[in-house]
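User: Hi! I have a protein structure encoded as tokens and I'd like to know what sequence might fold into it. I'm fairly new to this, so please keep things simple.
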């Protein structure tokens, strides 16, 4: 029997989540960086992903019978999510032994990280351990297994499977088991348990929005606009990853040329731009990211990317290394290198120049324009690759 007794009555057990959704909507609607109605609509779409994530956090994660959850994808964007990555999370309980099994796919990088706590609006989470598959004993058929007893403070195991070549690299498989509960049935539902889950979802929803509003100010937005940092080990303890960060502000007639050497000492190198929601922008039907496998490279071993609203090629044509701002005048930029075999230096990093879109062809005379049909083929390939790879 429904507990609702009138049009304005409480929905009982779901009330914390209802209140949180209303609070989250207010946070979105009043975000200080909103300039246009399109920004606001994007925010409401972003909110749907936050609601989805909050429900996953509360109802899909299970401390007694853990599974890997995919909380970040094309329908649930957060934390300047990497378009090239599939993310998996599992909750941990201190002192408990876990078995992780899988089959290594052909992606460029498979990395594991144990986090203490979670990101918040006040601070970043603590990385307790990080490694990639090079530290695993991977059999000829790609299978692997390792055991881990959660150390003091361990809360979450995060796995990232990262793709350099979207068209040809394939996903692997991954499972996690808790040694002392495998084979046992779940505990029966109780009202108290469900009430707790709805409360957890409510707190996760509001907390995630507040966190990702604050997070870029710890890093990206500390840097001068239209600059990129020297490559450095990525904050948060990711194994063998370096990154360069910044943020752009471009008028409609302006473009940013990002010049960076192609690195042969890593399995993965990429650039992406995002939105002020600190999330990826549409990487399926627009080209808002590129890996070194997707980008063209000059004979001098250097990749030159152009960030702009309008196509920057000859006669206003799109080009292979164009990153579309999709109506965003401002936003974060990130370059990543993974599975490095050496540390990077300033010479490996990017340089930046802001120019007029109309001047790009003369500044990059070797740039070849693409027809709309040719560019459409590129976009179709992105859509098919995301459909093959992503989980929602």
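Assistant: Happy to help. Inverse folding works backwards from shape to sequence: for each of the 392 positions I chose a residue that suits the local structure. Here it is:
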């Amino acid at each position: 029997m429904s507990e609702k007794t009138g049009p304005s009555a409480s929905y009982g057990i779901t009330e914390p989540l209802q209140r949180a959704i209303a609070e989250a909507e207010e946070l979105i609607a009043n975000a200080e960086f909103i300039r246009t109605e399109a920004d606001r609509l994007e925010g409401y779409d972003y909110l749907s992903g936050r609601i989805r994530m909050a429900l996953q956090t509360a109802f899909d994660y299970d401390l007694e019978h853990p599974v890997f959850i995919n909380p970040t994808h094309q329908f649930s964007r957060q934390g300047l999510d990497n378009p090239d990555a599939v993310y998996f999370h599992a909750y941990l309980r201190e002192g408990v032994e876990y078995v992780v099994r899988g089959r290594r796919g052909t992606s460029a990088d498979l990395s594991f990280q144990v986090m203490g706590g979670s990101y918040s609006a006040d601070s970043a989470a603590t990385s307790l351990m990080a490694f990639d598959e090079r530290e695993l004993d991977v059999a000829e058929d790609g299978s692997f297994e390792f055991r881990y007893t959660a150390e003091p403070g361990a809360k979450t195991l995060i796995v990232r499977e990262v793709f350099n070549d979207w068209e040809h690299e394939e996903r692997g498989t991954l499972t996690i088991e808790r040694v002392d509960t495998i084979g046992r049935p779940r505990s029966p539902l109780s009202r108290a348990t469900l009430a707790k889950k709805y409360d957890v979802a409510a707190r996760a929803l509001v907390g995630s929005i507040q966190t990702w509003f604050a997070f870029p100010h710890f890093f990206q937005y500390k840097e001068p606009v239209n600059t990129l940092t020297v490559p450095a080990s990525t904050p948060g303890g990711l194994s063998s990853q370096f990154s360069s960060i910044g943020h752009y502000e471009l008028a409609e007639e302006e473009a940013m040329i990002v010049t960076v050497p192609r690195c042969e000492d890593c399995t993965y190198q990429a650039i992406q731009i995002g939105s002020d929601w600190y999330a990826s922008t549409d990487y399926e039907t627009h080209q808002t990211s590129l890996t070194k496998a997707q980008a063209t490279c000059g004979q001098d071993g250097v990749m030159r990317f152009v960030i702009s609203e309008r196509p920057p090629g000859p006669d206003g044509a799109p080009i292979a290394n164009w990153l579309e701002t999709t109506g965003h005048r401002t936003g974060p930029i990130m370059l990543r290198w993974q599975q490095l075999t050496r540390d990077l230096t300033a010479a490996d990093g990017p340089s930046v120049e802001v120019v007029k879109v109309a001047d790009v062809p003369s500044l990059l005379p070797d740039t070849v324009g693409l027809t709309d049909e040719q560019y459409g083929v590129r976009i179709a390939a992105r859509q098919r690759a995301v459909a093959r790879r992503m989980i929602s």
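A useful reference point when you look it over: The chain has five helices and 18 strands. Feel free to ask if any position seems puzzling.
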